[in-house]
Amino acid sequence: MKVLMFGWEFPPHITGGLGTACFGLTKGLAKHNVDVQFVVPKAYGDENQEAVRLLSASDVEIDVEDQEYKDYWNRISYMEIGSNIIPYVGPEEFKKLVEESELKKELAGSSVFTRKYNFSGKYGKDLLEEVSRYALIGSAIAGKSHFDVIHAHDWLTYPAGIAAKYISGKPLVVHMHATEYDRSGENINQSVFEIEKKGMMEADRVITVSNLTRKTVIEKYGIDPNKIITIYNAVEPSDKSHLAEISKAVPEKIVTFLGRITFQKGPDYFVEAAHKVIKKDPNVRFVMAGTGDMMNRMVKRVAELRIGTKFHFTGFLKGPDVDRMLAQSDVFVMPSVSEPFGIVPLEAMRSNVPVVISRQSGVAEILKHALKVDFWDVDAMADCIYGLINYDGLSKMFRRYGKDEVDSLKWENAAYHTKNVYSSLLN
What we know:
The chain is an alpha/beta fold. The chain has two domains: 2-234 and 411-426, Glycogen Phosphorylase B (Rossmann fold, 3-Layer(aba) Sandwich); 241-407, Rossmann fold. The chain has helices spanning 17-31, 67-73, 91-108, 127-144, 154-168, 180-184, 190-202, 211-221, 267-280, 295-304, 320-327, 344-350, 378-390, 392-407, 411-426, and strands at 2-6, 35-40, 53-56, 149-153, 172-176, 205-208, 228-230, 253-258, 284-289, 311-315, 331-334, 355-358, 371-373. The chain has a seven-stranded parallel beta sheet with strand order 3-2-1-4-5-6-7, sandwiched between helices. Helix 1 links the parallel strand 1 and strand 2 (35-40). Helix 1 crosses helix 15 (411-426), helix 5 (154-168) packs across helix 7 (190-202) and helix 9 packs across helix 13 (378-390). The chain is elongated.
């Protein structure tokens, strides 16, 4: 079976869980004899291609005079985008992005309708322009490749998936990793919402990463429940024994938040819980690892609460730095307001770190050995953290059984269910 797969990022060049999930799923599919051609906006040359054939959209030329492309372009609504649509960029970076984008256009005269287009592959000012051009590339690749199924990950690649389906007539599967309601609450960006809705409407099957996301897709987007299938994410197995040698630089217990510092991830609830715990037990340090548009607000709040000597901001971490941070952590907390799934708690449990997660997360549906609280219940969150850092029996139980539980959550199993979705469309 051959799959044409579209994804906006691929390790090691990732900004969140999306790229990690794509990598894990493609490795799992390879074990089930599924051949995946994975199209990214921009490849850097250092990606792990053991399970996929990676194709950079930046290397694909199109015939700009071809009427087929122009016909497709007429069905794409293009508009300028504002900072609220850039999922991983804070306001302090936005002005710089705009200036760089304008300068680049002046120098290069770049247009969506050129034979080749140099994708940034980032989440910047020209994001929607890149999404549109990526869709044209999707149709070009679909017209020249042999495959059985199209699989598009998240809204950024849905237009490419639709274009590929239009050109090839092959079935389309779209993967919903996070909805616009997860990212923005009720303050949604209508343009992104429309792309998500159209992608799911045009798809033959929709894969959601949790029943929580499935419910949102049905109620908010009006998608037919009969074509939506929940397939839970997993975690990459790896030997972390060498991390046992890492010693903490401080004697206190360490409690970690690791994720984007945005509304969706609930960083403000983590700060308030930290304040409550520190008042009861000063022998603890809190770490907030990540970046995002709420970063400055969190720094200010930590200063207002006068807990700055016990609270640390690391900036964005990835790869080995994430492993080292988790190796030094005594508790991991994910207080997300709305989390479609949540891979990081699995990575923490795999590293023998007990976790506290919000009930408003998809991963809460499958984890048994995790402490679960409502994201807004700061008192309960603080109590869970306090219990895990002060009662060794409790902590040891969650470490032991949590790791065993996560070790059974394999991408190979998620891939098996995904392949069954493909097969159902080919029979």
